[in-house]
Amino acid sequence: MATVHLRIGDLVWGKLGRYPPWPGKVVSPPKDLKKPRGKKCHFVKFFGTEDHAWIKVEQLKPYHPHKEEMIKINKGKRFQQAVDAVEDFLKKKEKQGGKDQSSEGKGESKGKKNPTKPLKILEEDDEDLSALKDPSEKDLTDSDPEPSSLERLGGLGAAGTVSGFKWESSPVQDDPHFHHFLLSQSEKPASSMEPISKRLKIVEEDTGSTSIQAADSTAINGSIIPTDKRIGFLGLGLMGSGIVSNLLKMGHIVTVWNRTAEKVPQDNQHCDLFIQEGARLGRTPAEVVSMCDITFSCVSDPKAARDLVLGPSGVLQGIRPGKCYVEMSTVDPETITELSQVITSRGGRFLEAPVAGSQQLSNDGMLVILAAGDRTVYEDCSSCFQAMGKTSFFLGEAGNAARMMLILNMVQGSFMATIAEGLTLAQATGQSQQTFLDILCQGQMASTFVDQKCQNILQGNFKPDYYLKHIQKDLRLAISMGDTANHPTPMAAAANEVYKRAKALDQSDNDMSAVYRAYIH
C-alpha cells in the first residue's frame, strides 16, 4: 500500500497495542519535547480521552477514508463518544471557516498566559507513572477539557487486519528509544475530599504487595482503554450494579446474570436496564462463564458464593482451561480457598478481588479493590479495575484479600457503632447532636464517611448504601477469623452484638448507619 503522508491538523485513526483503532488528530508536540530517535512517527491527540502519544506512521490511517470500516468493527460506548467528538470538532471547524483554532504544544492558550511545566517522558520500564498536569495545553475540541492524566498504555504489539489494511506489529518494550506516553489536560477544580485526575501507578513493596492506582475513575474521564477480553458479571446488587455500569461506560463487552431474576420479576427489569446500555444477558452462571474470558461475581455471603460456583448450572460447569474467575464477594478465607481449588482443578484461573466502598462509591467508580491469587489474572483485569475503582492492591496468595477485607470492615463496622453510640449519648445528656457532628467534622476524625452517615442519621434517612446485615456478617466473619488465629477481638464482638440487636429491630435491609436505632429502642 502506498505511504500516506500526514500533516499537522490531519484527522487519523491511531492503533495502540491490541486495542481497537482510535480517532485522533496529528498535532505539534510541545517545543521542548524531542521526537523519538530512529522512528518515523507523529504526535497524536486522541478524541474522547484528550490524551497524547507518539505513534508510528505505520500505525496511523487517514480518518475519513476508513471511518465507516472502523465504526463497523468497534461498537463500544466510549468509542462512539470519541467519534461523536470528532464530528463536533468538524462542525465547529466548519463554522469557523475551516480554520483550526487549537494550539497544541505552544506553551500557552490563546488569551491566557500560563507557565509551562517540563514534560516527563516515560520509558517502558518506568516505575513511577504518577499523573503530570500541564496547564498550558488547550482542548482539541474547543470544549471544556475533562480531567485527564498521564498513563501508560500497552505497546503497539498486536498485528491485525482491518478491512484489508494491516496494522504492523512493533512492540514498544523491544525499543528503548520509543517513548510512549500520554500528556494530561488542564484540570477543573475538585473538592478536597476526592482525587482530581485519573492516574495509573504500579508500586512494588517489600511485602510483595502491588498497587494499581487509578484515581477519579468516573466514566466521564474516558481515559481507560478497555480490554478486548469478554467480561462476565454475576450479581447485580448494590455493589455489582455500579461496577457493571462503569464497565459498560468504559467500553467493555459485558455479559450479565443476576441470581434472583427467576424469583423476583423486577430483577429481570434490572437486567434489562444494562442490556439497554449494551450488556448481554446470560441464562445461567455456567453459560456466562462459557461465553466469557473473565467472569466476575459479587454476591452477599459465603453460602451465596459457594452456591453460585457449585450449584446447578453453576460457574464450575462452565469452567474450561484458561477461563478466569474473579470472586469479588466479601467472604471468609476458607471459602476463597475452597473456590480457588475447585476452579483451578478444572484448569481455570482464580483471583479474589473483594471491594471496599459503598453503593455511591461503586456508582462513582471509586472503589478500592483488594486482589489476591493468580497474578496474571490481576494484570488481565487492569482496565476493569481502573473502570470500577480508584485503587487496586495485589496481596499475594488467595485468601489474603479476604482476610484484609474482613479486617477493614471490622474496623468500619465498629467505628459506625461507636459514632451511633456517641450521637445517642449526646442526646441523652442534653447535648445537640448537630453540634456534636460539627465539632467531630472539625477534628482529626473528620471524613466524608462520618459526615454523610451522621447527616443521614439526623435526617432519619437509612436508605442502604451498605446493608446493615452485610456489615454484621463481616463482623461475624472477622471475629471467627480472630478465633482461628487465637487473637482477641473484644471491640468487634461488642459492636457485633449492637448490630444483631438492630437486625432484631428489622433494620437488616437498611444502611449500616441504622445501627443507631439499636440505641434508641
UniProtKB/TrEMBL annotation:
Biased amino acid composition, Basic and acidic residues: 92-111, 130-141
Principal location: nucleus
Region named Disordered: 92-155
Record keywords: Chromosome, Nucleus
Record GO terms (molecular function): chromatin binding; DNA binding
Highest taxon, organism lineage: Eukaryota
Keyword Transmembrane helix found: no
Localization terms from the record: Chromosome; Nucleus
A GO CC term attached to the entry: chromosome
Keyword GTP-binding: no
PWWP domain: residues covered: 8-66
One Pfam family from the record: NAD_binding_11
Family assignment from sequence similarity: Belongs to the HIBADH-related family. NP60 subfamily.
Official protein name in the record: Cytokine-like nuclear factor N-PAC
Taxon lineage: Eukaryota, Metazoa, Chordata, Craniata, Vertebrata
